[in-house]
Amino acid sequence: MLHTFVALVEDKPGVLTRVASLFRRLNINIVSLTVGESERPDTSRMTIVCDAHEHAAHRIRASLYKLETTVHVDEVDRSAAVVRELCLMKIAVGPDSPNGSHSRSQIFELANVFRARVVDLAPESIMLEMTGSSSKIEGLVQVITESGYTILEVSRTGRMAMRRGHHTSRVLSALGSRPKADGNGDNHGSKLDFHDNLGDEILPNEFENVHEEEI
Amino acid sequence: MSRPESGAGTTVLTGAEIVWATLEGEGVREVFGYPGGAILPIYDALRKFPIRHVLVRHEQGAAHMADGYARASGRVGVCMATSGPGATNLVTGIATAMLDSVPIVCITGQVSSKVLGSDAFQEVDITGITLPITKHNFLVTRAEDIAPAIRQAFQIATCGRPGPVLIDITKDAQQSTASFEFAAAAPCAARPHPMLRADSSSIREAIALIHSAERPIVLAGHGITQSGAEAQVIAFAESQQIPVASTLLGLGSFPAAHPLNLGMMGMHGESWVNHAIQEADLLLAFGMRFDDRVTGNLAHYAQNAKKIHVEIDPSEINKNVRVDVALIGDLRGVLDTLLPLLPKRTDTGWLRKINASKGTAAVRDIINLPDNGHLYAAHVIHDIWREAQAAGREQDTIIVTDVGQHQMWEAQYFKHETPRSLVTSGGLGTMGFALPAAIGAKTACPHKDVWVIAGDGGFQMTAAELSTVVQEKLAINIAIINNGYLGMVRQWQETFYEKNYSASPILSPDFVKLAEAHGIAGAHIAKRKDVTLAVTKARTSGQPFLFNFQVEKEDGVYPMIAPGAALHEMVHRPERDPLLETAEDE
Ligand SMILES: Cc1ncc(C[n+]2csc(CCOP(=O)(O)OP(=O)(O)O)c2C)c(N)n1
Ligand SMILES: [Mg+2]
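Above: the input record for the complex with magnesium ion. Below: its predicted structure, written as tokens.
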């Protein structure tokens, strides 16, 4: 089954190798891995999606913690989390396209339905940008292919995940600085402890329909 | 020659000097190493510091020495090598320390930072190579980063589950200068592992399991000594009247002569121990990891038993064996919490039952047979133990074994009463380990009697270190168990490959002459009656001594569990072992 881990790691040369090497050693295939900066200086955030045995999660998490460069590891499968992926897609729209000169407007329509954005227009191609869950991205790919268009290139970032609500305090305490209100580390009464209240989530416009498709 | 200030205050030093000053600050008195181009600045600065350098004959030896030093003393062992081939020669030694969780720090020289990645002369990506066999490693390219890296390395090596750490230092970092202050380079306090967990609910569950158990057994592992929990384990076992079985690396952590001690478990463990584990209704695994050498076929392992696993490394929980209660934390702390909560138990029925089940297994033991004129490895090892015991040196003897049949016989026939009295490569099973590891052990514990027990095969892998023994004036006693074979391989070929002794007969030099060529006295011994006297002579000589014990060639280690077989399906010494024809029992 697929497991999703969010790991905060020190932002140093070689850290990615350590993480990747660990999965290689455990003989586990990484489905996707995204790395980027986090809210903390000198700390990168990784979302690792891997295909492993159902009971493997504990061992993977514990093994990640064995890396000296690991600050915090969270398994987000069984929790309410927002999972997103960014996709860039280039579609051929020349004179031989299924709808000839109407092709462009049809792609615009499809993009609209999927809330994808047109980010480049060239004489023979259109580039779309889309953010969403993997299934939504796969949906768009499927619709475009089934409509007879040729997809020239697809680039996907792999998934990024973030727990909803209360989790933040735990991360802060793992990092050694917890918010003042949160005296004992796991204060469920604190303001940060919201599971489903979207009002508390700062969502950029692109993430409008967060309810829509959770994996 | 004035040495720059170390300790309090800031001084400007070269990177090379910082290496030594930091090691000195960490309390290091000895390092094991071998020089070369990329580490020459460090060697040049050595004379300014009160640290003894032991020159090895091969860098693998340096890593094993640091390892033996650490296992014998509990202090971090330090080794050094130059870049390229020097660094790659360390690899086997580092992996050996990794698999047995031994705290060592390895320092390697590296080509200049400007040419890193250019395949410069003697450049090798040693941090890449050692990534999976170190607990952590560092590539340091600036003088100011050296002290913090070394200090953090010492912390990592010893914290939690110990292990090897490597620091690769570029030549320009060694040559440039930086201000140095030992205290300022201290690492942040180690983050408590977020998965450590010995909370009240798991403690309560553990207590309930212990309370209701009728046939409990403690499985004593290396973690007991790593944690310094020997006294707690004894107190626990005595208070609950729970018998104790040991892994290979657990030997010595629980006194062999203790009435609750059962002996070694696993592939060549005592049959009654393995049977008892299969019959047990509760296993208390203390700092051991259910390695395949101790469980046999997992599908049939201790099926009647609930399992409580006390372990500091969360990734070991449920790795091989599914446990009922996991107490993740330092063993000593966990036992300190647990013990006061347990009412004393007095029922000794289970122990008596196990002892009764020993039956003829003990009687048929080769050690109890009358002398038939042949010399068996078991006799040699047993007599070395008896001799130490008779001389009152039992507590002050360290046995360092190599890998093979003699290693298993050592585990069976040398009774270890004290922690750190057996140094052996368990996890990696590295032949060639014994002699260099013994050099490390003797360097750490000069007042102890240190014995190498090695096979004729393994001894030849690192025999060059004999020269190190002499140069360092180390009074180490060496017992080569010479059976003319890679004995353990031969035994497997005998059992599983129809006696096709492919590449297992091995020719050896005259080991006594080899010793003499190094200026080491030696003797050939082929009769049991000569063993004890010779051993006493060697032990009291104050000089290194080498024995070539010419033992029975085709002896086997029994009992034995075939790979894939269950723990209770042990193969015993054949009833009509041709070796024993002349010495029928009963
Ligand atoms: C470096 C290394 N190579 C190969 C082996 C495989 N191996 C395990 S035991 C053994 C035979 C050891 O022979 P010897 O040193 O004579 O000891 P004996 O078994 O005869 O006591 C071998 C080859 C090993 N453990 N380590
Ligand atoms: Mg041999």
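Notes for the reader.
The first strand of chain B starts at residue 11 and ends at 14.
Chain B has a mean pLDDT of 94.
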